[in-house]
Amino acid sequence: MTAKLKQDEPDTRNILDTMKQGVIGKPIPRVEGLAKVTGTATYAAEYKIDGCLEGVMIQAPFAKGTVTAIDTDALLAMPGVVAVIEDPRQTARAAQGTANEAPVQEPMTVTYYGQPVALVVAETFEDARNAAAQAKLTYDIEQVGSFDPQDVEAEVQEDSATRQGDLAHAVKTAAHAIDTTIHTEGHASAAMEPHGSIAEWDGRNLTVYASLQMLNYNITELADSLDLEEDRVRLVSRYVGGGFGSKLGVSEDVVAASLAAMQLNRPVRVVMTRQQVFQTVMRRSESAQRFRFAADSEGTLSGFGHEARVSNLPQESFAEPVLQSSDFLYKGENRLLELEVARIHRMTAGSVRAPGEAIGMPALEIAMDMLAEKAGVDPVELRIRNIPDKHPANGKPFSSHKLEEALRQGAEAFGWDGANRAPRQTRDGEWWIGTGMASAARVHNVSKAQVRVVLAADGTARVETDMTDIGTGTYTILAQVVGEMLGLETDKVLVSLGDTAFPRGSGSGGSWGAASVGSAAFVACNAVRDALCEKAGINTDDAEFKDGRLNGGKTFSDILDGTEIDRTGEYEPGDISEDYVASGFGAFFAEVRVNRFTGETRVTRMLGAFGFGRVLNEKTARSQCLGGITWSIGAALTEALLFDPKDGHVVNQDLAEYHVPVCRDVPDCEVIMVDERDPAASPIQAKGIGELGMCGGAGAIANAIYNACGARVLTLPMTPDRVIAAMPD
Amino acid sequence: MRPFDYQRAERLEHASQLTRPEGGRSIAGGTNLLDLMKLQVETPDTLVDISRLPMAGIEDTDDGGLRIGALASNTATAVHPRVKADYPVLARAILAGATQQLRNKATTGGNLCQRTRCYYFTQINQPCNKREPGSGCGAIDGIARIHAILGTSDQCIATYPGDMAVALAALDATVEIAGEGERTRRVPVRDFHCLPGDTPWRDNVLEDGEIITGVTLPAPVGGTQIYRKVRERSSYAFALVSVAAIVEMDGDLISRADLAFGGVAHKPWHDPRLSDHLVGSVPSAELFDKAADILLDTAQGYGENDFKIPLARRTLSAVLAHATGTKI
């Protein structure tokens, strides 16, 4: 039986707060944590399957053109090689998140350097890898004018544009005006677990163990790629070693393994090498972002302009949505927001860790810091002064808005001194010391989702959905939602995820997983509660579920008397998504040391205060925030994809040369969670958490660098060379 | 990785004999070689495992110096009491490199032979004169952020990426090399690595069949010893620029200034003119600046790495100011 809730109105009942079990929000360690740290959690490529062949993708050594032939005879003569799979159904470019249809096929038509064109299958991985590296391709190359997004024409994305009032005039007549352009470099998602799949074909049905974030979409993308009915395809992703957007859509390895298994009637594993992950997995676009502000003498905005250029391949619809939170974050009746996309032949740009705000917010917050300085206003006060009471363009109400609280609580905990913000006030030997702050914002997303909850005859619960846990804590928070609603300790709730044999969840992406599947579980639990109360002959409104007993009396098991209650809950956001602007908000405070000779920057303190609705698990929520802050440090100081100007290939293609932060780069960070229930965000009053921690943090670090040494660095990451170049001496 | 023969060397002569033919490579810690074999940058026919040869010792020499066996791990060297007490620049350089796990495996000899991190060297479908002589250099008109500014050639602008050898160059250490039969030779670390010139495939002076047996350090010289490594992140990153410095004062005058630089050339860079310029002078910002002029008088940037020229100047000034207690 399926219980459905389409949410058209805010749910202000806060039902979870009225429950008595007391497990919701508690800092319960991740239920799968022990399995992961002891190596017993089986990741996609680790399943032991007899007779499994190994496939490695052949990649195009050029950016644009057509492969006309592959010398398969030569490959088949190589040691260990079993087959070369050339198939027009093979994925040329991975599906974008939530594509829900076959990704781009016809892989012989090449649009970026390193694009997979075919698969070599061999008895061993090393033989397959060697053959793929030696493959002789015949091809016609089409010349590409430029790989540089600043060198080509760009097209404006009209659907995300806002044009209101007269920004140019407002800037011209303003007491304080800002006109600055900030550049950010591209990012790799850099998940630890490389993309890998094992496909098994029994002649009719296909099972694929894969590392994916959104099985509910991926099954359709895969089935459509293969021209198979969906009910003949099963995807399994029980554990995912980091997604960060890179595993949203079905990827080349999944389809390649499937095609090979179906052609060869043997299981086939395809694991990307680290270099292939860097070459083929979607990048975050670099950006150029121009800000134009008009403010009165007190710093209150009358004009707000954010114009940005990002890039992607021709035909790719995704455009890094850097304006997303600029849309509603600050005042300014004269508004101009425009995003344009330059078409270049670097690999596909797509979702990488908080697409949009991860680079849009830091840039915006650098520009705001410049305005604070110009207007002589405490940067914290400037933000508070510019919080609109409704959406500044379309007038919609906010569902809940905790920016001011986050700013104030963060400032107090950090010991923020906003009075004297002149740069270069503190030095310790070679090191300038300074502080900076930034707002955080990330739109709240929520999606349709289904979760099955079974209250078993023994009084324990089973929870099933094809939702994934990509290291975020989904297993644990679902046990807590269900435990709270059904009156069970979490060890009495068994959560099974990552298998398309289960009802469709939301998938993990856009920080929407917890609110979406948490709400679906909530809906299912309400139905289970009703059914149990009906059996017990009482009204649900009068029932208290606690410790496996109803109203302190009979156990669930006694009431069930050998039967079980099986309900699927379906949650779907209705009018609430249209009627309200919903967002997580927060504030970052950073202290840095900048070496006056070498320009090296080290973050010595970092604090984030965030409001994201109900906290389902204090520990996993805090861990998400810490992860976001860590990525903020990476975006600020070290992370940059480098592209060869001659052929557009990624040159830094491993974790030694693509610099994510290491432990020594990350100080002991403080996280404050602002108490909040957002009734229009979801029926469990929760919003997205995962990405908010990196939506602005790099701006706080940039502003701290300026405060420390007077270097206003306008290109991220702020590597030593850029800091030196921006230093006043 | 391609199939290869594995042989365990029982004696040094045996190792020398096995690595003499083309395609024979010795392996100890393997922290660099195995990565390059996976990428097929290195495709040896035979791996000669020398890790069990008795060359891991660290012992005093008759002249008061120290001999570090070729198989001493980087960790063992960095924590050795005499290294810490008498050659702190070496301990600091080693600890500035790689990660704890890598340092536990990496050896003295292997570290000296570490190959470049040039992006084009490690990507076998890109041109690289070092990996494939005559194929061209992808870095010169490509992404040269991590590349050399001193001693480059039109064939190659790669750097030697290590830290330990930079300190050894400042210390004027000597590499002991065993060859065929009983033949051994001693080469100053400063002459061990080659400049790319017209033979960029040649990293160092080792001939086929030659094996590093150890490194000897001269008697301690004291002074202030600094290893300063500038990098984007604070661990597990190669130097943009590094400076190893041994500086001593006699009253107001500099009496010793042994300097070597990493991240700027195909070898640990040692320029004897710097010592001549600095020794006997009163330290000052102007003196340091002139030292940088001397160091960098032939420096050439390749666009992406132009920043290394001012960065090397600034880092040298910072190190000299620190070492001499000069305010600048």
Structure commentary:
The complex is a heterodimer of chains A (729) and B (328). Chain A is of the alpha+beta class and 729 residues long. Among the domains of chain A are: 2-41 and 447-573, Aldehyde oxidase/xanthine dehydrogenase, molybdopterin binding domain (Aldehyde Oxidoreductase, domain 4, 2-Layer Sandwich); 356-444 and 582-726, Aldehyde oxidase/xanthine dehydrogenase, molybdopterin binding domain (Aldehyde Oxidoreductase, domain 4). In chain A, the strands form seven sheets. Chain A has a seven-stranded mixed β-sheet, with helices on both faces. In chain A, strands 8, 9, 10, 17, 18, 19 and 31 form a seven-stranded mixed β-sheet that branches. A five-stranded mixed β-sheet of chain A has the order 1-27-22-23-24. In chain A, strand 13 (206-210), helix 6 (215-226) and strand 14 (233-236) form a beta-alpha-beta unit. Chain A is globular. The N and C termini of chain A lie far apart (71 Å). The model of chain A has no long low-confidence stretch (mean pLDDT 97). Chain B is of the alpha+beta class. Among the domains of chain B are: 5-49, 2-Layer Sandwich (Uridine Diphospho-n-acetylenolpyruvylglucosamine Reductase, domain 2); 225-324, CO dehydrogenase flavoprotein, C-terminal domain (Enolase-like, domain 1). Helix content of chain B is 28%, strand content 19%. Chain B contains twelve helices and eleven strands. A five-stranded antiparallel β-sheet of chain B has the order 4-5-8-6-7. In chain B, helix 5 packs antiparallel against helix 8, helix 10 (272-278) runs antiparallel to helix 11 (285-295) and helix 11 packs across helix 12 (308-324). The A-B interface holds A 61, 79, 126, 129-130, 133, 273, 275, 430, 595, 597-600, 602, 637-638, 642-646, 649, 651-653, 656-657, 659, 661-665, 717, 719-721, 724-725 and B 1-3, 38-40, 117, 119-120, 123-126, 138, 141-143, 145-146, 230-238, 240-241, 307, 310-311, 314-315, 317-318, 322.
